[in-house]
Amino acid sequence: FTRYHNQLCDELAAAKPSLTAEEHFWEARKVVIATLQKVFYYEYVPALLGKPLPPYNGYKSDENPAFDPYHTMAVMRYGHSEVNEIFVRLDDQWRTHPAGHMTFRDAVFNPGKALETGVDSVLRGLLSQPQGRVDAYIIDYMVNGVLAGPAQRPWTVTWGGGHCLAKKDSGSTTAHGLFDLQSTNIQRGREQGLCGINTVRTKMGLPAYSNWKELVVGPGWASARPNDPGLLLAEDMRAMYGDDVDNADFWIAGLAEGKSAGDSNLGETFSRVLSDNWARVRRADRYHFENLDNGLFTKADVESLLKTSLADIIRRTTGVLDAPNRAFFVPGSQIDGQTRISAMLQLPDFMEYDHKELLSPHFRFAWSIVPGERALDIGIAAPTTGWIGVGFTNGSSHVMRNSDMILGRVHEGVGSVEDYYSIDITPPIRDVDRSPAGKESITNTRIIQENGVTTMHFRKPIDSGDSWDLPLQADNGRVRIAYAFQPQGRTTLEYHGAMRGHREIQLFEPQCPDGTYLNAIRMDCVLCPAGTFRSRDMPVGACTRCPIGTFQSAAGSSECHDCSDMAIAGTTTTYYSATSPKDCVCPAGTRLHRSHGGENSSMWCVQCQLGLYCPGGMDTPWQEADYYVEMLQETPLEVSVWDCLHKHACPRGPMGTCAEGAGGRMCTRCILPGRYWNERQEMCSTCSETQGFYIIVIAFAVLAFSMVFLYRVSMDWGDDQGLSEQLEIGVAMGMVLYLGQACSVYNDMKIPWASPLDRMVTATAIFTLDFHSTHIDCSLQLGLLQQYMLGVLTPLLVIVAYASVAILLPIFWDRRDVPLRCWNSVGLLMQTFFIGILLHGVKPFILYHHPNGLHSILSMPSLVQGEAGFVPFAVLGSFHLVVYGGGFLSYALFACWQLRTRARLGTARGIRAVLWHRFIYIRFKPSRYYWSVMQLSRNTMLAMVPVVFDDPHAQIVCLQVLMCLAICMHCYFWPYKSGIHNSADLTMMLAIVSLSTSAAFFVPMESYQVVNYVVYSVVICFVICFIIFAILVAAMIVSLTRRRLMTEEQRLKMEEQSLKKRTMFYAELQKVDQKELSVMEAEWRGVEADMLCAAPMPTLETTDLLKVEGELPPDLPNASDERLAKLEIDFIAPSEHPYMKAVQSCLKVLEERLRFRIQESVETHVSMQAWKPTKVVCVRSQLPAELSRLDRRSFSGVNWNRKEQEQISRLCVKIMEFQATFVEVFKVEKSSLRLLHVFVTRMESKFWGVYQACVKDMLRIQSGFDRAVQAARKLNTEAQDTEDNRSERYEVMDRSFSCYTNFMQAAMRTQEATFMYATALAAGSGGSVTRTSVKRLYRILEKLAMDPKVARGEEARTWDAARMMVLYDSMDSIAKGVDLIMEDNRCGRVEVVRVKERFSEPTSGGWSDILINLRFPSSCKELCKLPFELQLCHAQMLVIRKEMGGHHGYAKYRSAKEILEFLTYEPDNVAQSFGGEAGKANFIASLVGSSKSRTSQPETSNFTPVVPSSSAQQVVPALPGGLTDAD
Question: Would you say the pTM of this structure is higher than 0.70?
Answer without folding.
Answer: no
